[in-house]
From TrEMBL:
This is Reticulon-like protein. Residues 23-43 are annotated as: Disordered. The keyword Disulfide bond does not apply. GO terms for cellular component: endoplasmic reticulum membrane. It holds the Pfam family Reticulon. The keyword Disulfide bond does not apply.
Amino acid sequence: MAEESEHKPSAVESMMDKISEKIHAHDSSSDSDSDHEKPASPSSVKAKIYRLFGREKPVHQVFGGGKPADVFLWRNKKISATVLGVATAIWVLFELIEYHLLTLVCHISILSLALMFLWSNAHTFIHKTPPRIPEVHLPEDPFLQVAASLTFEVNQALKLLRNIASGRDLKKFLGVIAAFWVLSIVGSWCNFLTLFYITFVLLHTVPVLYEKYEDKVDPFAEKAMVEFKKQYAVFDEKVLSKIPRGPLKAKKF
């Protein structure tokens, strides 16, 4: 009888151990199911957010990620303010005061040469060392790089205009015609210097404001893009689709 009484508690304990193991296994399986049912992380949701012009990179990398991007996005406020101030001074000098470039260059040259000449001859009377005029030598590499970049961009623009003029893409054709038409209207309002200055100021203000408020601008831009696509689809169905097109030439490989 004593042996039977000793075996009974051990059997009960083994049954309790099995029940507890089943409970723990059920909890772990429910935890794993809940992990699978968790919503996507904020980073994955953020990656699906619409960005203006379909960009996938930050604004700083869109501008090249170098010193020009730092200037446009005001990473160094002193340098950006200095560049914008110099551009404003040049615009005021040539546009408002109506100073001419050749006249300005000649006056600066006259003033600089006169000061250096007088200082070089007067140092013996005022007992000071003569001025040390540095030798100015412009390196060729930066100018060659700029020329190569401009040549590449011009060739790309000419290639794009040639493809548009071939009649293969009506949408791009209408977009370029509209852009040239807007530029012609803006050009009738102001001269090239003012247009260049306005563009320069916009490059120093719009990107930094967009980078600061992009989470508010992008949803609005998405709605505007959806509405534009709807209107373009209606215009394409009623007008563009009825325009006869010539046969496309086969590409030569």
